[in-house]
Design a protein that fits this description.
81 residues, mainly alpha, 74% helix, 0% strand, elongated
């Protein structure tokens, strides 16, 4: 328990379960988008997939994670034929 207090005093906290679920969900959608974009030779879908896989490493707030993820998924939706 002292380790958690020490980490918290340093400014490091564990992410919430909602953040972890969102990161996994958007990461899986990103893998699918990257794979299908590569297979169908659609660069926009491929790069949106890469963005979906990597942006959780840059966003720390749970609400912002879901807002950015929803926006990138909307980009995938409007990129369809």
């Amino acid at each position: 328990m002292d380790e958690l207090a020490t980490l918290k005093s340093l400014g490091l906290e564990l992410p919430s379960p909602a953040y972890i679920v969102g990161a996994i969900l958007f990461g899986l959608v990103g893998v699918w988008a990257w794979y299908s974009g590569r297979r169908q030779q659609r660069p926009r879908r491929k790069w949106l997939g890469v963005a979906l896989m990597l942006y959780p490493y840059l966003v720390w707030q749970t609400g912002l994670l879901y807002v950015v993820g929803a926006a990138l998924c909307a980009g995938l939706y409007f990129d369809r034929d």
